[in-house]
Amino acid sequence: MRNKITLSVKHFGPITNAEVTFNRITTFVGPQGSGKSTLAKLYSMFLWIEKRLERGLVTEKRVMQSMRFQKVYCGYHRLSSYFYNDTEIIFSGYAYTFTYRDKNLEILKNDNKEESKVVKVMYVPAERNFLSSIGNLSDFKNIPLALQTFKDEYDSAIQKYASGFHLPLNNVRFEYDRLNKIPWLVGDGYKVRLSDASSGFQAALPMLLVSQYLTESVASRNDGSESRLSIAEQERLNQRVKSVIENTNISPEVRNAALAVISSQFNYSGFVNVVEEPEENLYPESQKEVLYMLLRLANIDDDNRLVLTTHSPYIINYLTLAIKAGKLKDTANGNEGILGSINSIVNIGSCISAEDVNIYEMADGSARLLEMPGGLPTDNNFLNRALYDVNTMFDSLLDIEEGM
Prior knowledge:
The chain has twelve helices and 15 strands. The protein has helices at about 35-55, 60-65, 70-75, 130-135, 145-160, 200-220, 230-245, 250-265, 285-300, 315-330, 335-345, 390-400, and strands spanning about 5-10, 15-20, 25-30, 85-90, 95-100, 105-110, 120-125, 165, 175, 180-185, 190-195, 270-275, 305-310, 355-365, 365-370.
């Protein structure tokens, strides 16, 4: 997934003028109301529209219908009121370029992409802790659609991991009582209902459970199983396959090629995980463990992507550690002793490359790409603070480097 995905936004909600290029790991930092989630939501929305266009579930003409883009698609993420008379949005994705200008949306099929990508995208909202503390949202009105979609995936994930799911926090395991429909957290010498657990667990569990579930679901294509399709998608797939097979005017070679293209459009090439505030209600050490689990999941497939919005300086510093550890891992030449030392500080599976990371600082209605001097995020950002434990771990990585 090396295609460049870019997003340009002018005069939309809190954003005055912002241009962003999404990398394998993209992070937005900044104060409340600065536009972090706005950019993440637009990215998620456009990728979802691309998927539906590629699978023939909607036509370009229908997406471009007057006010449909604003009221329906942007309304899904509650962005409908963000429009101004001079709003301009340009999104260049895997298969299409969307241009919203002068209150009109235009869609052009990209012709410079080597391969079209259809990705599974999940937006993990900050309100996810409601699912743990309340559980059944069916009696509540005006639930955000994004939260409802997340809940549907969360319900599926609960069923899959009902027999047990280990969280990277406090040696705690999730279990689900199917008979009584009760989610439990089981620790050393205790067992508590999720609804009675701390707010940190209530926010972290849905995020991690769904992230693991969807990562495995998309990766399952590698062992020959099919990606999950909705009923509408399955019907559309059957229609398109049938039309090709029954076409007697094409050669066997063309028929096989057409079927291969259809197959690629109805399988996911990767999982795009868009997470609001992964640090929500978590102690710094727990923020690290949650972040590194998200990175491990992103690293499972080269076509996976991770987008984060955060207020936490710890997230940026732990990303820095993961990048530094990745550099050391690449130069370790398989030396098990060195790899073991790195792993004691940063899980080897969570190591990342600086080339795969973009960090944007949101301020004054714009997005500034943080510099990466020496391949590490610059200290010149408003979130960075002198964190003693992070500095200590970084010094340990330097010791490893000096001993190599």
